[in-house]
Structure formats: C-alpha cells, structure tokens
Design brief:
The chain is an alpha/beta fold and about 290 residues long. Helix content is about 35%, strand content about 15%. Helix 1 packs across helix 6, helix 2 crosses helix 3 and helix 7 runs parallel beside helix 11. The chain is globular and about 55 Å long.
Length: about 290
Amino acid sequence: MGGGTVVLAGAGGPVGFQLAFRLAAEGAEQLLVVPDEARAPRLPGGAALPEAEVVVLGHAPAPDQVDLALDGADTLVIAGISSGDPDPVDLLTAHRFRRIVHLSQIGAGAQGTAAHARRHWRIEEAVRGSGAAWTILRVSVQFGTLIHAVRDDLLRAPAGHGRVAAVSPADVADAATAVLLDERAHAHDGMTYRITGPEALTGEDVARTLSAVTGRPLRYEPMSAVDAYATPVPWVRDLDAWISCCAAVDAGVFEDVDDAVARLAGRPARSFAYWLDDYPGELATLRRGASMG
C-alpha cells in the first residue's frame, strides 16, 4: 500500500464497515470518516479498531475542517455516498491525496439511468482530474438490496424482468483490499473494474432462492414506478434512488457478469445462496414469518 494513512470515507456503510476490519487486520493506519460516531466500525464490545481514528464529518464540512481532520492522510477510499456522508468531491477539493480508490457504481455516466450512477459519475470525473493515482471499482447492486423489499411473502419492485449480477459486500471489500494492499507498485493505477456476483438473477430467481432458504412461499411481482411511489418500502431512505436503480435493472444495466472479484481477490465471487448461508442474520425477520412492512 506504500505506507501513509488511509482515509475511509463511508466507513459506516456495509462495504466500508467490512473494509475497515480488513485494513485493520493488515495494520493499516486509518481515519474512519462517518457522519455520526455511533456508525463507526468497532470491535465486539465497542473497542476501537487498532490504528484507527474516527473522524466525524457531515455532508458539507468546511474546507479548513476537512484539511485539519485529514492531516497526514495519503490515500482516500470512497466506500459510500449516503446522504449523511461528506461529499467526496469536497474531500478532494480540501485535501490533496497521493492515491484514490473509488467504489463507484456500474452504469456510472452523465446520463446514467440510476440516480446514484449519475452522482458517481460526477465523483469519478473529480477523481480522474485530481492529479492523484486512481483506481475505480464499479460495483453492482449488493445482495442486501434484493431482500429488503419483501413484504407479506411478496417481493415487489419496479424492476420488470431484468437481471442483476448482484454481489456480496464482502466480495466488494475483498476486491478493494486486494487493490489497496497489492505490493506491485502502480499495478492498478488508471484501472476501472466491474465488481459483480457470479450470476445474473431475475426477481423470480431471488424469490425462489429465498423460498428455499426460509421455507416460505415467496414470490416476485413486478410493479410500476407509479405504484412504487405510492407504496414506499419502509427501509428505503431515498425512494427516487431506489426506483431509478430498479429501472436500471429492468434496462439491463446490471446484467453482465464479470470475473474481477476472482482476478483481484484470488477466489470466485460468492453466490446469492452462499451469501444467505454466510449471513443468516439478514434473514432473521423472514425466518420468523414476520412481514417486512
């Protein structure tokens, strides 16, 4: 990794959380950037990760506040862009980094179908123009997103019959860790990777797998965007972003499978069924037979 402190922006998200633990295990010095200290990754029992300092920054911090908080930082990892996290472009403007690894989104572009794809494109442009060495990992939809729209044994989403090569957050973290810790100097400079799971799933595939794992007769039912706005999913904070992501699934944006996880992490990406077996807590509510609503 070349030494220096790693700034992990979005450390409180599902990928950032896992990435923080991987870097801590390798002895990396980290600044864990979160909008609220309660969201910072911690060891069981609440102890801080070794060599990790928590930095609380809101969505629009002052430039001098950023530069002071990130003093001595060498590498920036953009692992999340939730509404509470600081805008990564503000971090790039306020502090000069030697290296940047950006976990972007598949389909990123000025005219991207998904709202986050357009936002990630703006960040990608800033990363490429920063003067730092950069690597971009364009990530598919994560597995957790596939199960949270289940309500009363029905998976409903405005995704039509599109396919999505969804991916485990652990695989994203492993791929990013491999890039960051690669001992070959500059091996990933200027590279853009597509991070996907091993198979392209339809809504019917997702429901079938969930039924097999939970023993409940789950089924998938496509819905229109109009219906989605009328019956919002409780866990979704940004309904526009979720509906536009589903539209991207329907349009085939996420359907292509890539082997980047295997090439970077040295092992194949985990399947949806494997991930469910690995993270049974994700299905706790479904196994109890309770409604997700």
